Amino acid sequence: MKTHSLKTALVVRVTVAVLALLALAGVAGADLAPSVPLPTFLLNAAMVGLALVALVVVAAVASLTVSQFVLRKGGTDPQWFWFRSEPPGLQQLHAQAKAMAEQRHGEPS
């Protein structure tokens, strides 16, 4: 029960901090459009900020989903997609595991 209240408190704190930063950025950015009333500008800034937060959340979920898929299908680490191949030590471990499996079963796989 205690961890639930800690998580709730953390979510509330983060939400308040994000809203405060958005309001600060909105008030500071209001000078960029002096003809727009401040409440309208703040509303637009809040909508843009919430859209950016939603975009970050969607990107994080998509990235984590792809990473889990790769790991479930036998991939080593999705971060290695940036390189041509797996690290040499890992390739050697795969070769050793394959050789041991062939020895145990008596036939190449």
What is the fold's blueprint, element by element?
Elements lengths: L1 H28 L8 H35 L15 H18 L4
Helix pairs in contact: 1-2
Verbal overview:
It is a single chain. This protein has 109 residues and is mostly helical. It contains three helices and no strands. The chain has helices at 2-29, 38-72, 88-105.
Based on Cα principal axes, name the global outline: elongated
Fraction in helix: over 70%
Helix count equals 3
Query: Biggest β-sheet, characterized?
Result: none
Average per-residue pLDDT, rounded, comes to: 82
Question: Over the alpha carbons, how many angstroms does the gyration radius reach?
Answer: 25 Å
Number of DSSP strands? 0
Pattern of helices and strands: HHH
Rounded to the nearest angstrom, the distance between the terminal CA atoms is 51 Å
- As a percent range, the share of strand residues is under 5%
Category from helices, strands and their pairing: mainly alpha
Task: Name the poorly predicted regions.
Answer: none
